[in-house]
Amino acid sequence: MSWLEKLLKKYTLDLGIDLGTANTMVYVRGQGIVMQEPSVVAISDRTKDVLAIGEEAKRMVRRTPLDIRAVRPLRNGVVSDFEVTEKMLQYFIQKSIERYAKFKFAARPRVVIGIPSGVTEVERRAVNDAALNAGARKVYLIEEPMAASIGARLAVGEAGGSMIIDIGGGTAEIAVISLGGVVSSRSIRVAGDRLDEDIILYARNVLNMVIGERMAEEIKLSVGSAYPLKKELETTIKGRDVLTGLPRIEKISSIQAREAMAESLSIIVEAAKNTIEQTPPELVSDILEQGIVLAGGGALIRGLDTLLSQECMMPVYVADDPLTCVVRGTGMLLDDIELLRRVSVISKYDKIPS
User: Fold this and answer.
1) Domain check: are 26 and 173 in the same one?
2) Mean pLDDT, the chain, as a whole number?
3) Would you give the DSSP letter of residue 191?
4) Which residue range(s) make up the domain with 114?
5) What is the C-alpha to C-alpha distance for residues 322 and 334, in angstroms, rounded to an integer?
6) What's the DSSP call for residue 218?
7) Is residue 136 part of a domain?
8) What is the pLDDT of residue 133?
9) pLDDT higher at 342 or 349
10) How much is the pTM?
């Protein structure tokens, strides 16, 4: 490490960011995970000003006056609104610097950002440019399954095969990793948000009720399951009756929630099976011995590990604290610059990061 790198390390606050469709998490080197807020921005249509970001903005969803929009600038794991994403990133980066920088005039941070493995060159470029414009000195883009594998402490640098399924809000990332690279992978835009939409459709078509995104998410978390439970669960659903338009309260069980999510869960299972089919036999043998690791918020769906194990005919384990695997992986890479350079995604327009 040169004297300049040592000086920058002393005066720089390096950040790892899991820029998720549903939530954004920030890891500060030396501090750990310091921020976890919804990826939501409230904007005034009249003045075009940003009124709130994160938790405060999420509380405004579907509850704002006509001239205020609460938007999610990332859809299916990719940037759908560049300017809003840039402002959101700037907010998280500046907030981290203000809270945790040791010196008032700290150098601009290096930032490691997890991105879906299936994004296009244009989408990748959008994230990179948004982070640079938001105040980053250097941006490293890491594919989410790689970051999740590192965060789950899988031996990604060894010759043996490791398989991870990272189910976030917008995408499900499935990858087999060996020797610090992705051998076979799938990135599908069927994940937590799609499951919420399934529950909303089920409520309308079967229960004749209109419910919102937050209610659907609550149902998924409280009674959602992918496999029959020993003791089925039940919760209350609140919404509006389709026929009368008046408020209505109804009961919904884990059996009904499972029925609502069945088709989307089967797509994730099929993608996992297809990934295994494309994996060399030697690595399949390693995975059979070590098992598949589940990460991301989707890993918390009851019985999903059992369903995948039964369908893929392999042991499946849920990672420790699956929600934070990606951001922990980006943070761990901040302390291993050689591995970071090795696994970071290089754009055809970029020079190799230094």
Assistant:
1) no
2) 87
3) S
4) 3-39+75-147+325-343
5) 20
6) H
7) yes
8) 86
9) 342
10) 0.88
- For 353, list phi and psi in degrees, rounded to 5: -60, 150
Total structural domains within the chain: 3
In a domain, 53, yes or no: no
CA distance 105 to 112: 21
Question: Which one is predicted more confidently, 180 or 233?
Answer: 233
Which tokens is 177 given?
Answer: 């990793």
Ramachandran category for residue 179: left, alpha or beta (phi over 0 → left; psi -120 to 50 → alpha)? left
Pair of tokens at residue 112? 């490691």
Give the CA distances from residue 107 to residues 2, 102, 164, 327, in Å, rounded to whole numbers and listed in that order: 17, 11, 35, 22
75: amino acid identity, one letter:
R
Dist CA 180 CA 183 (whole Å): 9
In the chain, what are the helix, strand and coil shares in percent, each to the nearest 5? 40, 25, 30
CATH of the domain at 338: 3.30.420.40
Spatial distance between the Cα atoms of 57 and 325, rounded to a whole number of angstroms: 25
As given in the structure block, the two tokens for residue 346 are: 């290089």
Lowest mean pLDDT among 68-72, 292-296, 313-317: 68-72
